[in-house]
Specification:
- The complex is a heterodimer.
- In chain A, strand 9 and strand 10 form a beta hairpin.
- The N and C termini of chain A lie far apart (about 35 Å).
- By secondary structure, chain A is mostly beta strands.
- In chain A, strands 2, 4, 5, 6, 9, 10 and 11 form a seven-stranded mixed sheet that branches.
- Helices cover about 0% and strands about 55% of the residues of chain A.
- In chain B, the strands form two sheets. In chain B, strands 2, 4, 5, 6, 9, 10 and 11 form a seven-stranded mixed sheet that branches. A four-stranded antiparallel sheet of chain B has the order 1-3-8-7, with no helix packed on it.
- In chain B, strand 7 and strand 8 form a beta hairpin.
- Chains A and B meet through strand 5, strand 9 and strand 10 of A and strand 5 of B.
């Protein structure tokens, strides 16, 4: 099974600042990597797929990069609504094996 | 608009059973592969089961194989998950999710239904 490791566990950022979240795969997943945002009491929301393609309706301040084993989600200028937990997910060997990272919480500094 | 509405969760004793349902609307359900994903109290996400649009291809996570059964009724636009021999570690919010392009990432999620396994 491909293990996804996210860092840091918690990121404290001031509104308007840039946030950089990391996700590492235990083996290459090519560009088969998605990012999701989850707010309390809500289901995850797809932000990025194909490592760098924004999903429909996702603001341009969200960007993804990377391939192989190392990936990054960047939020260029944090808005109040961006404080949430972010998960990465690899889907390189889908179906059936798509595995998620443990999440990074972005909190207000 | 796309809607996925889960139901059927609840409190059940270890060894018990539940049947989860997901009512889909706003898209062509019969042309769509579907999945169940669960989120544990520790917030870990796990893809539990997958079913192709016709139902002829089905996969399960190793952790639920032999205990969970996924099915669908395309005439009713509904997805199901029969969960048997429940264990404490099955406690989670169960989401149904639609993978629009059948690529393995999930564009749409329901609001989830909570399954709590406790004696």
């Amino acid at each position: 099974e491909v293990v996804m490791t996210q860092s840091p566990a918690t990121l404290s950022v001031s509104p308007g600042e840039r946030a950089t979240l990391s996700c590492r795969a235990s083996q290459s997943v090519s560009s088969n990597l998605a990012w999701y945002q989850q707010k309390p009491g809500q289901a995850p929301r797809l932000l990025i797929h194909g490592a760098s393609t924004r999903a429909t309706g996702i603001p341009a301040r969200f960007s993804g990069s990377g391939s192989g084993t190392d990936f990054t989600l960047t939020i260029s200028s944090l808005q109040s609504e961006d404080f949430a937990v972010y998960y990465c997910q690899q889907y390189n060997n889908w179906p059936p094996r798509g595995t998620f990272g443990q999440g990074t919480k972005v909190e207000i500094k | 608009q796309v809607q996925l509405v889960e139901s059927g969760g609840g409190l059940v004793k270890p060894g018990g059973s539940l049947r989860l349902s997901c009512a889909a609307s706003g898209f062509s359900f019969s042309d769509s592969s579907m999945s169940w994903i669960r989120q544990t109290p520790g917030k870990r996400l796990e893809s539990v089961s997958y079913i192709s649009r016709s139902g002829d291809t089905i996969f399960y996570a190793d952790s639920v194989k032999g205990r969970f059964t996924i099915s669908r009724d395309n005439a009713k636009n509904s997805l199901y998950l029969q969960i048997n021999s429940l264990r404490d570690e099955d406690t989670a919010v169960y989401y149904c999710a639609w993978d629009v392009r059948t690529r393995g990432f999930f564009d749409y999620w329901g609001q989830g239904t909570l399954v709590t396994v406790s004696s």
